[in-house]
Hints:
This protein is mainly α.
Amino acid sequence: MNVAKTDHARVATLFDAARQGDRAALDELVSLLTPLLWQVARDQGLDADQAADVVQTTWLRLLGSFAEIRSPVALTGWLITVTKREAWRTGEKRQVERPLPELPERLTEASPAPEEGVLREDQRVRLWRAVDTLPERCRSLLRIVAFVHRPDYAEVGARLGMPRGSIGPTRGRCLARLREQLLANGEGDWL
């Protein structure tokens, strides 16, 4: 997905509904725009884990900024800007925190084959299809915390209307249901 192909009117409608508390609209908004935000983060030179963290942070920033966004039609641009800024911060931290790695005398590891990328993308698609079969509470929770190793449970709880202490156990149960669903669909070979 790219910005030119984004249906800004649909995004604005979903955002207005999400701002009014419609969780299904928020889920759809996240599903619709996450691929675009992921690409923006990756375009900033981040690896997959860093990009996932940046996208998650972007969504959390949106949850805390519903009232500040005056023009829902401009939401996509706002999200892209936040994603770029978070990516830059992450990139700056990475440069400060990580020393240069030593190069081996001889490079032995080959780049992954193109078919591995295709298989990984297929697995990603099958995973999110399985997520879509879960109950609404699990879908909402997993979509928000999917990209963060240590999410801010206070923010997540406030957004989803869940007690902070129940988020971790609920997340565990939802992941167990997801695993069962994937195994039932014959997806056990890559779990």
